[in-house]
Structure prediction request, 446 residues.
Amino acid sequence: MAVLHLGRVHPDEVYQVLEPAWYRAHGYGVLAWEWKEGIRNWAIPGLFSWLLRLCSALGIDHPLGYRTVLEVPQYALHLAALAAVERWSRRTLPVREAWLATALVALYRPVLDYAGRTLSEAFSAAFLVLAFERLAASEPEESPARRLRRGTVAGALLGLAVVSRYGSMVFVIASLGWVLWRRDWRVLGGWVAGGAAVALGLAVLDWLTWGTPLHSLWAYTQFNVFSGKAAEWFGSEPADFYVPIWLKVLPLWSWLGLWGVLRRHRSALPFLGCSLLYLLAISATAHKEERFLYPAVVLWAVGTAPATVQLLASLRHVQARTAAALGALVLSVYILQRIDPPKKREHFQAIVRATRSPQARGLLILNEVPNEDVWGAGGYFYIGRDIPWLTADRPEDDNFRAAMRDPTYNRVVTFRRLAVPELERHGFSVVEQIGRATVLARDTGG
Prediction:
């Protein structure tokens, strides 16, 4: 969905990952303020930059081509997380029913919308599912060596969840409470060792890229927790901001699963408890965004899915079980409220099409939403070439007038045919219509 639909659910999937990766691979690009202040680490953009270099070496120069290549490791991570859901479900369910529980999670609408997106929440949620499945995988006759290995893997996965998104540190602290409560010291020892190894790797990475070990982690914490700048720059919301969103976005079948967890599946309580602790933590911070909920709702769905399926399987009649299972799947796919549906699908497709021609020397993008500036566009990543480009909201803007005077700008992408008459007066003509997006070109000679 992320590759075929293009567009985005949030600008960060472009400017936190794709555009900095493009910058590292090709030496030019738009670097958001986070990459100048050093509050992000280069782990994922660095990996993607090497994949972009590989694409260049193989001659893959179309944005859809190299975007597909970047999706491969994320898709593998998503499949690994779903395999972990199946293993977790199989601890209490037969194989066929475990597959149904996995399908409930896989077809949950926010998962379909977010899992393939290059957002920190998407990467982190997958690592959290893998980590929590390892922590929950205890067996009565498990050997001490196996418990140590399991804790090490879980600790490393939790570390990767934090490297992907520093806000997931709340889950690490919550999982530590889980391990301490169970008094499983072998798992705890592994948990510490695995997490420390990833922390060491992050320290080295930050030292190489920012000049100081763990620079990005400290700068992120300082900005978001202690300085108050996040709320000052991006706004603040009341403490109960997430409550109505949480109640709307959870799948309806998970409420049935919650009853099953409280009644019988107590092993899932850490999944739900850690999700609620995270909800409380992000509710206590001033700056809030709906996407911040994603890791918590995924863990909640994973925790409640097996109990939901077991309750459905306990129905006496085959027809009732089948109808209930199909109903749960339908509700998971067509959940009434989404977190944030994909945006700018046609706009991004038009940007790609407008810049494919070698004759395209400069691009003007008329924003779909006013005041988005460059953050409403796809950056050099989707343009795919080192050509100048500008954004504008209306014909009166300085950027619009500058582009009309400069013959270098011979391609325009606009939305809902905004300013088409003005563009035609400056020699542009419509060459393609992609949904509500319009591509225009002009012959400026040379």
About this structure: The two ends are 40 Å apart (CA to CA).
